[in-house]
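Still learning. Any example?
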Amino acid sequence: MERPLEALRRHPHHLGMAGVAFGLAAASPGLDVALAIGAIGGGVLAIAGAGRSGVAFALLVGAGAWVGLVRLDALEPSAAGPHSGARVAGRAFLLEPPRPGRFDSQAAIRMVSGAHAGQRLLARTGPGADWPQRTDAGSELRLSGTVGATASAEAPPTGDGFSPVEYLARRNLAAELLLTGVTDTGRHRGGIAGALDALRRQAGHGVSAGLEGESRALLAGMVLGRDERIPVATRDDWRAAGLAHLLAVSGQNVMLLAALALPVLAAAGLGPRARLGALLGLIAFYVPLAGAGPSLQRAGVMGAAGIVAMALARPASGVYAITLAAAVTLVVNPRATEDPGWQLSFAAVAGILALGPWIRTVLLSVAVALRPVRARRRTKAGEALLRALTEAVAITLAATLATAPIVAHHFGSVPVAGLAANLVALPAVAPAMWLGMVKAALGPLGTLGPPVGPICELAATGLAAPAAIAVSWLALVAERFAVLPGAGLTLPLGSPAAVMAAYAALALGSLAVRAAAARFGDGGQELAARWRRAGRGRRGALLAAGASALVLAAVRLLGPAPAPDVVTVSFLDVGQGDATLIQDAGGAAVLFDGGPPEAGVSRLLRRAGVRRLAAVVATHPSRDHHGGLAAVLADFPVDLLVDGGDGTPDPGFRSVLAVARRRGIRTVPAIAPLGLALGRLRIRILSPPPRAPGPPPEDPNPRGVVAVVSAPGLRLLLSADAESDALLPLALPPVDAMKVPHHGSADAGLPRVLERLRPRMAAIEVGDNTYGHPTASTLAALRRAAISTYRTDRHGTISLSVQAGGLRVRSENPDPG
C-alpha cells in the first residue's frame, strides 16, 4: 500500500484541492478559523516530513478562505434592504415552489419592481393571503406585505432552537415578508432561468402523469426534488425510518441516471468516449433540472470527476472527487456548510469511502466462507448478484454510521432501524427512480406536436402503474419502520464539540472492530469449516428456520394493519385540524374531515387498518378540515363523498370535488335532514339546513356539518367548527361522547350545549396554534361538567371503543404530563 507521504508527492493536487476546500469551508465561521486550520495542517505535514507540502497547504487554505470571503461579501444582502416593519409592494418572481408549514406556507421570491426591486425575500402567507393556484417557480406575482425578521437583525432563537436570522442568512435572503395580498399576473420570468423553469414544469408533468395522491408527491420528490407536496408528517416518517435520503435528490440519483443511460448509449452505437461525453451532458442537464441543491451539486461534480477520470483512463480518486465537489459547492455558496443536507451528503460519501470497502470485503468473505463446498462453482449472474448485494449493504451501513452524529445533532435521535429499512426498501429504489426519470424525460417530449407528443404523453401515463407499485412499497416500509418500538435512539448532541466527540468515538470503534475481526480470523474460518462439514439436512433445516422467521417477521411488520373488531372512534392527531375516523366491527369506515394537507392523514388511516371508506364527510370549506381529503380520495377506494362545501368557490375545496369526479365517487350535498346507513353505523346530519340562492356566507363555520353518529353501544356528536350559536337551535340528543367544537375556541354558550348533550367523554382536536386553542374558558366548562377530556396535542391520536363493560379510551400518550 502506498504510504501517505508518497501519495502526496505523487498526487500533490489532492492536497491542494483539500486546502482550498478547507479554506472555503472556514470562510463562513471567519478568517481566524481558516488561519488556524492552515497552521495546524501545515504543522502536521511539517512534522511528518513534508514541509513544502505543509506550506503549500497553509497558503491554499488562506486562498480558499479569501475566495470564500469575497463570495460572502457578494452574497450579503444590500445594506439598503428592507427594515423590520417596512411595507413592501410590487411584482416578484417565485424562486421556488411554495412549501407548506405548520402555520403558513413559504417561498423565496425576488422583487422585480417597487422600492425593494432586486431584493431576495422569504415570503410567508397568513390568514389574509394565500398563494394563487398553480403557481410555481418562475411565476410572476403582484404582492404586498410587511417585513418581519431581517438577516441583519439580532434576534434570539425560538423555543425549539430555530433562528430565523440564521436561516435567512444561510439562504442569502434579506428578510421575511408577511404577505397581506398576492395575485398571479399570469406571466413568467424569461431568459435561461425561464427556459429551465418551463423544462422543470414539463418534467414534473411527466413524472406526475397517471399518478395521484401520495405516490405522485413522493415520486416527484425522489426524482426532481419537488418535495413541497409531501406532507410534513410523511417526511417525518421517512426520516424516522432512515429513508429520508431517498426524498433528497443526491448522488444516488446521479449514479442511477448513469446506470440507466449507459446501456441506452451503448445500444445507440456510441463509442466509449462519446458515451462518457453524453453522460457529462446528462449530468449537467439533470442537476439544474432537479433544483441544483447542495447535495446534488456535490453529486454532479463527483460524478463528472469520475467520468473524466474514466475518459482519461485514470483511476478516479474518491478523496480528490469529494474535495473538488466541496470546493465547487462552497464557491457557489460558502454558507452551504451550515445546511444539514450538505453536511449529511458529504458525511455519507466520506463514510462510504472510508468504511465501505472494508465492510464489503468482510461481507464477501463471510458469504464465501459460509457457502457449501459444492456451491463454490458460481455463475457470472450469481457472482454479480452477490457482489451487488454486498455492495448495497456495505454502502448502506457505512453511510448510516457516518451520518449518525449529524442526524443526532440536528434531530435529537438516530434511526436505529434505518439499516434494516434500507435493505427492505432496496429492491424498489432503482425501479422507482428509473421509471420516474423516464417519465420526467417524456414530459418535455409530450409538448411536441403529433405524433411524438401524444405517444410520449401516453407512455408517461402508462408507466404510472409500475412506478406507483414501487413507490407504494417504499412508503409502506417507511410507515412501518417509523413506528417500530425502539426504531429511534435518542442521542442529543447539542454542540459541534459533541458531534466531533461522537466521530472520534466512531473512529476508535471502527479501529477496534477491525482489530477484533483480524484476531477472529482463524476462529471464523474454523466456524465456517464446521458449517460446511455439517450435514446437508442440518444446514437445510437451519436455513429454512431462518428464512421462515424472516418471512413471518416481514409479514407481521409489512402486512396490512388489522381493522378493529369492535366499534371504534379515532380522533386522529393531525395537528391544528380535524380528522375523525369511525369504524364498525364489520369493516365499514367513515372519515369526517382530513386535517391540513401537511398532516398526511392517509398514513394514519392505513395504520388504523382502513382499506376502503364507506363515506367521507367534508364538513365545511376550511383548509385545516378539507386540506387532506384530496389525497384520501386518491389513495383509498371511497363509496360516497358528503359535500359540505355549501357552494364555496374555495380552490382547495373545489380540488377535492374534482378528485371525486375523476375517481367516479358518488357525491351528495350535506344538507339537513340527511340520514345514512353504512354497515352498523347510522349517521344523522342535523345541520346545515338549505339556504337561499346566492353566494355562500363569508364565514363557513356556522354552516359546518353537525352530525350524530350511532352504533351499538355508542352515540357520538361531531360538529366541525359549528359553535353554540349553530348548535343550540338544533334538537340535540344525549350522547356518550363528543368532539369539542372549533378546536376548543372560546364559546360562551358551550355550558348550555354540554347540559343538553351530557357526554361522558370529550375530545379536542387541536395542535400547535397561534389562536390560543383550547381556551381556558372551554377547558373550565368541561371540568365543571365532569367530562373526561382528551386533547390530540397532548394525548396524540385518541381511540374510543365499545367494549363489553362500556366505553374504553386509549391514547398514544396516556400520560401527557
The chain has 28 helices and 23 strands. Residues 1-5 have pLDDT under 50 and may be disordered. Residues 568-811 form a domain with the Metallo-beta-lactamase; Chain A fold (CATH 3.60.15.10). The first helix runs from residue 4 to 10.
